[in-house]
Amino acid sequence: MVTVRIRGRFVGRSGFTLMELLITITILSVVVLLIQSALRISISAWEKGAADISLSQDLRGAVELFAAQVAMLRTDRAFSTETGGFYLRGDSQHIAFVTVPSMNTASRKQPIFVSYEVVEMDNGLRRLLQKEQLVFETRLFSGQEGLEEPFESVILASCKNVFFDYLKEVSDTEGYQWQPSWDPSIEKQLPKAVRMTIITDALQSPIRSVVRIIRDPMKVASYNWSL
Q1: Which of 66, 129, 165, 199 is the most buried (most CB within 10 A)?
Q2: pLDDT category of residue 147 using cuts at 50, 70 and 90
């Protein structure tokens, strides 16, 4: 209520003073800021949840593909190269072998030469790449000339680290031990199992996929993965 003086009389007139307007604008500004902050937090939480779901799906897909292909490792004949034949070879950042299932070829029974490679990016994170090359049946295991052009896929776009381990039977008394590489020219046998470990920024504990290798190709190899 604003009171004004007209011809010696005080007459009341409805309205707001400047102070009342300033107080009202201040309160409305605080309310708008609170709503904006709540909306920003909600959007951030939604984006984080969507990113976590996408990461979880990517991790599951990478682990299941790796486990399935290692489990179907071809052990009937060694793959020939210039350095000699091998069933499987690899180190902590790379693994290569011949298997059956393929994510890129129409035939699920056609042998393929598969390699997984960990590549370090400029930001210090790592990317997991997979390459598949179809092995022609007419020149099966005859060497590099028996392969088609490789098909490269990004299995994991970004993670803190990925590495491979290989389970070796040391002796009857010492049992088994994991080692960071597998050289077929030295080992002269297949590892008992292969393990892939994935470390991400979003998950505190690493993801490990352990695939047991069975020499008989008619048997179904077992594998598991855990958080």
Answers
A1: 66
A2: low
